[in-house]
């Protein structure tokens, strides 16, 4: 498929290590994919679902100990420990190659090694980049087919170049004790072993498009961010683009596919999805920020997805989709998960592969069960999805799950203050990674688990991009859909109604909406958020917008402590912003 000597010699080297029984180059043809699906089905790895109801769809169950990203087993293997920074696990690259080399040695001796060339971003886009993943998993091949532009066109785009990310993956024995996800930013390489779960093994996604790409972006002057991208069309037919960073399982896919409430639909507002998880962003020839979605599909959270919460996501899963760790409905050979509807199937198998009775009170689908759906299935996919230069950003939005402190929405006072706002993000942990759920942790720019280098340098990079942008910089906002009342219920209806907040955001960008200055930034006047058709009154909204000075003083202490980790690498501008916040709080 290629004469690229860098590719060929690297593959020879990896073959000598893993000693595969066979090597199969993935060309991306439907004929070859058909064969791989059949093999995967024959092995019992994929279950073919009802062809009439879910054409081309499959169900997969991972091992029970392998259901989410493993942050404690994910390493940045930069030559110097300092370059990985205080927020990443670090391993000396020599030690990592040696340790994992032993685990990879002969690991594919009874298995086929698939060579997957893939492109992150539209083929031919100046923002796109090439990776090659070697894997012994047909599940990985079939997922990469949905999530990336996979096969021959990617190799053709690479040509003779050496600029590709070298990914090596083996399921090995799914041995938790020896599970490692290692990134070698200086070598453009990723080694992943002993997992078969999404973010650990679909190496184009978090490993390349965020961890390696963030490092590349720092060196090359662009940004790789954990952001959705959406286009908001107004009644005049003008589309403004917003990128938003929320931590895993905090609402990116939902916001990206938002359906405006009826009062907005009637006026002609629409939301178009460009991406739901990752954005690659750079300064365009016109001096503005432009973003592409490097992915080609959605690896979305299944539980809670239904025709009311996110019809566009659900409709995206109706064909050519792989479901992972959901309930198998044996009544009609389809799938189910908590929150799909109120009728759990009577005859069903849970995510663990056991007979399941919904009356048992046990969840049938894993809370981090997922669908892998092609972007082209999405009813609201943007006409710019394949655009090689991407879309121009009017606003950048940060957000997380905060029961109290963070208000529904506020705007930063400047780009520099916006970088501060992103850097102090905090959110409750979710099932997307193993470990405790619901614990508040700092997650700057939603990149804590995904930044491939020192986070202090990452903040500096953000500040420098702002300096280059000058007055062409998008405005920066923070949102929180997750404030709760005393009984722990969400106060804001969220989902489609988040449109009401987006409208204020865009109006601010266009200088059409007023604001009040609070100690933490600009907030809407309550009257400027459209509540038509909602059973929320102005007082409740004022509560949602409230800034509790005492809570924020506590917050400032927490920020001091967090910032302390970065030592000299913490940009002075952020220290100034923290001091200014404290002054404003009094
Ligand atoms: P990853 O794919 O892990 O990056 O997640 P994500 O950020 O795309 O989150 P997603 O949109 O899948 O939503 C995760 C969970 O948050 C789901 O259970 C949603 O139902 C819930 N959620 C999303 N948006 C809202 C909202 O506006 N309000 C409330 N209360 N819940 C929401
Ligand atoms: C996330 O956890 O942010 C995801 C899922 O999008 S994974 O690909 O597993 O990282
Ligand atoms: Mn994500």
Question: What report would you give on this structure?
Answer:
The structure is a single chain. The N and C termini lie far apart (66 Å). The chain has 586 residues and is an alpha+beta fold. Strands 1, 4, 5, 6, 7, 8, 9, 10 and 11 form a 9-stranded mixed sheet that branches. Strands 12, 13, 14, 15, 16, 17, 25, 26 and 29 form a 9-stranded mixed sheet that branches. Strands 2-3-19-24-18 form a 5-stranded mixed sheet, covered by helices on one side. The protein is built from 17 helices and 31 strands. The chain is globular and about 65 Å long. Helix 12 (415-423) packs across helix 17 (572-585). It folds into 3 domains: 5-44 and 70-221, 3-Layer(aba) Sandwich (Phosphoenolpyruvate Carboxykinase, domain 1); 225-294 and 384-585, Phosphoenolpyruvate Carboxykinase, domain 3 (Alpha-Beta Complex); 297-377, Phosphoenolpyruvate Carboxykinase, domain 2. Bound molecules: guanosine-5'-triphosphate, sulfopyruvate and manganese (II) ion.
